[in-house]
Design brief:
This protein is an alpha/beta fold. It contains 19 helices and nine strands. The chain has three domains: 170 residues, NAD(P)-binding Rossmann-like Domain (Rossmann fold, 3-Layer(aba) Sandwich), CATH 3.40.50; 250 residues, Orthogonal Bundle (N-(1-d-carboxylethyl)-l-norvaline Dehydrogenase, domain 2); 28 residues, Single alpha-helices involved in coiled-coils or other helix-helix interfaces (Up-down Bundle).
Length: 465
């Protein structure tokens, strides 16, 4: 029998996806550029439907037509090289799926190039890490809809399932799937930073231990704040370093890395004119964290406030909880604003309720808030902003006072809360009748004769200052 799908790339994510496919009944041809990972996979997971190859041509020929090949290799030049090596071995109608963290612009180009030769390219955003890949990730495929129909039985089978629905759906044309994954990662950056700033507040303003904060986060995770990131943060805060017995968070260097998707999201937001301020701030905070040596000097020469003890700790904790919910709403609001404008700009026809549905399970940003987000866009596909939906409008109105109190306590204590501050500024800016931009326009007209509009009549005007 021919294999139903080929998986190229047996690193951590590729191996987990291969196991997932095999466990779901697929016959999987396996190939890796180096033979060692193929051998290792078969030793660790000897499955009757796993068919390993060390020769690329034999790997391709083992697949039923139209051939379906799923790539799990490093994004960028490596992916290009792999596609180039596969191309001469494929026939018209065959399908290449790229599950790497590719830039959507690269996916657009690959889609168009392969299409000219009759080969289908499907960019598949994959979220969930190693565990998600093994047990059911969130999948965001895009490309030819007819080609997706041929691979959807496999993809929807291996995806996470929520209430009997797969966390996988056709996203749109070209590289739309990788775009959706990119902004997913931007939302992930911001949500991680919000949780981190909440931890900073509870630890250094309210003066709670990591174990005490873990208990609070665990309780919060039983409420509307339920999310994968809050859950794993609870486990992290309870974990002790084996050598010292100290909380592991006190041993880990406070210097955050990144792989670029958050930066790509911010750059794209600037290109589209979208105020994705919380995502951009989360990226900048990682840059700031990298300045460890400078920060160690600055702490001894730059003054902060005289810290006062929080008198009402339970009130402060409650404010922190409501601030986290408020902040998360703003992060999702900005992310989905970016999806909406990108869809219109690139002609992708993104279905925002489908995107929210895909994120409900398997992915890193899965949270209970995604259910009302899906409902909001199902109810009104033309919704311009989540804050204008009845549910989210009430939620924001109910919690904005706690957000302000949380920020005032944190800033007064000298704790940096950049992503929360950006969320609050966005909210107040969005609801402002007068934004202050009138002064900016006057300044631009003064030094550059850039003109301005008036509030009392139509037209474009210039003042002789």
């Amino acid at each position: 029998m021919k294999n139903t799908i080929g998986l190229y790339g047996l690193g951590v994510m590729g191996a987990s996806l291969a196991k997932n496919m095999l466990n779901k009944g697929e016959r999987v041809a396996l190939y890796n550029y180096t033979d060692d990972l193929t051998t290792q996979f078969m030793e660790q997971f000897p499955h009757e439907h796993a068919d390993p190859y060390t020769d690329l041509s034999s790997f391709v020929q083992s697949l039923e037509k139209p051939r379906k090949i799923f790539l799990m290799v490093t994004a960028g030049d490596v992916t290009t090289s792999v596609i180039d090596s596969l191309f001469p071995l494929l026939d018209e109608g065959d399908i290449i799926m790229d599950g790497g963290n590719a830039n959507f612009i690269d996916s657009n180009e690959r889609y168009q190039t392969l299409r000219e030769h009759g080969i289908h390219f499907i960019g598949v955003g994959v979220s969930g890490g190693e565990e998600g890949a093994l047990h059911g990730p969130s999948l965001m495929p895009s490309g030819d809809k007819a080609a997706y129909a041929k691979v959807s039985p496999i993809l929807e089978k291996i995806a996470a399932q929520v209430n009997g629905e797969p966390c996988c759906t056709y996203i749109g044309k070209e590289g739309a799937g990788h775009y959706v994954k990119m902004v997913h990662n931007g939302i992930e950056y911001a949500d991680m930073q919000l949780i981190t700033e909440t931890y900073q507040f509870l630890r250094y303003v309210v003066h709670l231990s990591p174990d005490e904060i873990a208990n609070i986060f665990e309780a919060w995770n039983e409420t509307e704040l339920n999310s994968y990131l809050l859950k794993i943060t609870t486990h992290i805060l309870r974990h002790k370093d084996e050598e010292t017995g100290k909380p592991i968070v006190d041993i880990i260097m406070d210097r955050a890395g990144q792989k670029g998707t958050g930066k790509w999201t911010s750059m794209n937001a600037l290109d589209l004119g979208i105020p994705s301020t919380t995502i951009s701030e989360a990226v900048f905070v990682r840059f700031l964290s990298a300045l460890k040596k400078e920060r160690m000097i600055a702490k001894d020469v730059l003054q902060g406030p005289i810290k006062e003890e929080i008198q009402q700790k339970e009130t402060a904790i409650q404010h922190a909880k409501e601030a986290l919910l408020f902040g998360r709403v703003i992060v999702y609001t900005q992310g989905f604003m970016q999806y909406k404008v990108a869809s219109e700009t690139y002609g992708w026809d993104l279905q925002l309720d489908h995107i929210a549905k895909v994120f409900r399970g398997g992915c890193i940003i899965q949270s209970d808030l995604l259910h009302p987000i899906r409902d909001a866009y199902r109810k009104n596909p033309a919704l311009t902003n989540l804050l204008l939906d009845d549910y989210f409008k009430c939620l924001a109105n109910d919690h904005q006072a706690s957000m302000r109190a949380f920020l005032m306590d944190g800033i007064a204590s000298g704790v940096s809360l950049p992503t929360y501050s950006a969320a609050m500024a966005f909210y107040d800016g969005y609801r402002a009748e007068r934004s202050g931009a009138e002064l900016i326009q006057a300044q631009r007209d003064y030094f550059g004769a850039h003109t301005y509009e008036r509030v009392d009549r139509e037209g474009v005007f210039h003042t002789k200052w």
